[in-house]
Amino acid sequence: MAAAYFAEIAGLIPAADSAAAALARAYAEIADLLGRLRDKGLPAADKIALLDRAAAAETQAIDQITPLAAQLRGTNA
Fold first, then answer.
1. What is the mean pLDDT of each run of 10 residues along the chain (77 residues)?
2. Which of 7, 26, 28, 63 is least crowded, fewest Cβ atoms below 10 Å from its Cβ?
3. Other C-beta atoms lying within 10 Å of the C-beta of residue 9
4. Is the pTM for the entire model greater than 0.70?
5. How many other C-beta atoms are found inside a 10 Å radius of the C-beta of residue 31?
6. Is the distance from CB of 6 to CB of 23 less than 8 angstroms?
7. What secondary structure does DSSP assign to the chain, as a single string?
8. Quick one: pLDDT at residue 74?
């Protein structure tokens, strides 16, 4: 859902295209990582590694949201 939201922003607001597209890719990756956890046959250690990767990716994505919001406020001012 977040990936689609940021992809929509990228398509609608040219000034925010690059940052929003990067966030769309980041959240698509996070969704993929979390989706892979559904595999009942995946060893616990692998699931923990996927969670660690998802957490790191989300931390980086969150850090990109504030600058994007500031950029969007600037384009709407």
1. 92 91 96 97 98 98 94 73
2. 63
3. 18
4. yes
5. 15
6. yes
7. -HHHHHHHHHHH-GGGHHHHHHHHHHHHHHHHHHHGGG-TTS-HHHHHHHHHHHHHHHHHHHHHHHHHHHHHHHHH-
8. 84
